[in-house]
Model the fold of this input.
Amino acid sequence: AMATGPSILLWRSAVAVLPLEPIPRKRTGGEAGSLGSIGVRFMIDGEKKAVDEAGLAGKPVAFSDAYEAGGAVSVRPYLDGSQLGALLKELGFANPWTKIPGMEGDPAYGLGTTDVEGLTKLPADTLFWYIGNEGEADPYTEALGKNKVWTGLPFVKAGNVTRLPDAIWMFGGPASMSDFLDAVVKTVQGS
Done:
């Protein structure tokens, strides 16, 4: 059976896609939801409601990860073509990465690339969310912690930088996306 209501197709790969039976999922808002159908679809009404109730609908969220190599930090923006970028858009957030001229995502994962100077092109009211890897140095707090460009960004000065839990696989399937949705709700609710 195909999921109905607001939903988003999350898998967009060349992997064979088969119809799946809906998988029950405990919803943030207490209502019943399901994962399933062709591709993998998430029902996100409860999570979208949490975004709306927090007054964050339409707010720019720049989601990324980063790594350091040879003293330089490379930032990987999650654009609308990425699984997480599309999911954040469906939740009601704006993706500010898409407004940066020349910012393009790779066709397989929808990830772009930039450096700390590229972050200056993000709007001042951006919520900057990112994922790190447990046990590895955090490029944003360590490598960029004393970088004048980074520390001078309006969203950094305002304290609008949030590291989501490390245990979420950003390219994962239903369980990972469920964990991501839970992390988004906790973030917007300030818990």
Residues 1-41 have pLDDT under 50 and may be disordered. The radius of gyration is 17 Å. The longest strand covers residues 61-69.
